[in-house]
Amino acid sequence: MSIGPVKTQFFQLTAENPFQLESGEGLESVTLAYETYGTLNADASNAILVFHALTGSQHAAGTNVSVPGIQPLWTDDCVLGWWDDFIGSGKALDTDHYFIICANYLGSCYGSTGPRSVNPRTGRPYGSKFPQVSAWDVVRSQLHLLDYLGIDCLHGVIGGSLGGMLALLLATRCPQRVRTVIPIATGLETTPLHRVHNFEQILAIRNDPNFNNGDYYDAEPPKSGVILARMISHKTFISLNVMEHRARQEITVQEPVGKFYNLSHPIESYMYYQGQKFAERFDANSYLRIMDMWQRLHFPSPTEGLFSSCIHQQYLVFGIDSDVCFYPEEQAAIAQALKHDGVNVKYITVHSDKGHDAFLLEPELFSPYIQFILS
């Protein structure tokens, strides 16, 4: 059962000096959109931080019909929390016992400060003037949120895909702030395959005539580029068998590529439709900023004792055997590095035909293990 209606909250990070970014630039003010589920206990020891995936949001569970200031991006696809099957009473992240926090990334478009936000110096959206944001900038901004909530040490941190990389970054750079770490379908590096796929998506958006170097908020947005970017990425998220099965049930789109080509297979219709839906709910500039963050995300080599300061932590590492976004070998490398540094780790390979997105779609394959390690 869903936890029901929820509302996004907003944390304002204020300081005498701008929020300094790793790029050397700064933001005069930072807002983080976040949601919480459950109740924080008296000594603030039951908090679990969830990092969302690439284009996710702070809305991880329950129903949220609108978020102030982000229309029209909050489409029907956003109303139900993206991890609703995992968060709630008796679920993997049990709200009867834990206080769950999920925040939208700095640079994203669901209420946190990003390219669509108003630049206080100009009174207009940042657009092309929004600075480069690193993975550590994102993690550090959320550490400020934890400080605001009075949480010194997390009971756990969990994330899938890119969110899993951020969970590992927090755990290794601030080991004193978390006890249990659960990275799902993720890795310790941006692989050559990631870089190629990501670069294709970046060019798809930048080459859209409507992109206008990121300053398009007073005109038609670069939806064609976003559609193509989503199609490039989507094929790594689900297995080909699932894609073919879904395509047979999908609405057929009409002539998406012009008069010189007619759709020849339902998979084409399915992929284009997925791109169309995504282009309605996500901002192109935010996509580029987060993609850039991923391209530059870097961990020290595991042979350099990456987890040597994490000896007090425990890890539950999940791989998915059909994943072609973060291959199972990448999770095996995480587990091997943890064992090398003497850290308590359980490594589980989930068997699924759904590919990378299994961690979003099949709670029954993950929940018992998550519940056990958190107890």
Shape: globular
**How many whole angstroms does the radius of gyration measure?**
20 Å
Instruction: Enumerate how many helices there are, as a single number.
Output: 10
Q: Which whole number gives the mean pLDDT?
A: 94
Question: Can you tell me the CATH class of the largest domain?
Answer: Alpha Beta
Q: Summarize the main sheet.
A: 8 strands, mixed
What is the CATH architecture annotation of the largest domain? 3-Layer(aba) Sandwich
What is the H/E order? EEEEEEEEEEHEHEHHHHHEHEHH
Q: Which topology of the largest domain does CATH recognise?
A: Rossmann fold
What spatial order of strands do you see in the largest sheet?
A: 1-4-8-5-11-12-13-14
Number of strands: 14
Question: What fraction strand?
Answer: 15-25%
Domain module count: 2
Low-confidence parts lasting 5 or more residues at pLDDT below 50? Answer: none
Termini separation: 21 Å
Helix content: 25-40%
| Structural category | alpha/beta
The CATH superfamily of the largest domain bears the name: Alpha/Beta hydrolase fold, catalytic domain
